[in-house]
């Protein structure tokens, strides 16, 4: 399962990074970027929480 952030829509609020820093971090454009790897098993629930909490709904989580 992987996480994706639509770079065009991210407003850099930092919520996903606060909730799940193992998966999300700021890139050089100060937008959130997800790790390329699969979401670690013990972070999946928090990654989904971050997706659900994103104020602009730009996080996608897919198999
Ligand atoms: S919660 Fe959404 S808008 Fe906020 S930093 Fe993460 S991806 Fe960007």
UniProtKB/TrEMBL annotation:
Annotated InterPro entries: 3Fe4S_ferredoxin, 4Fe4S_Fe-S-bd, 4Fe4S_Fe_S_CS, Fe-S_cluster_ET
4Fe-4S ferredoxin-type domain sequence ranges: 1-29
PROSITE patterns per UniProt: 4FE4S_FER_1, 4FE4S_FER_2
GO molecular function: electron transfer activity; iron ion binding; iron-sulfur cluster binding
Top-level taxon of the source organism: Bacteria
UniProt keywords, alphabetically: Electron transport, Iron, Iron-sulfur, Metal-binding, Transport
Pfam families given in the database record: Fer4_13 (PF13370)
Main function: Ferredoxins are iron-sulfur proteins that transfer electrons in a wide variety of metabolic reactions.
Record's protein name: Ferredoxin
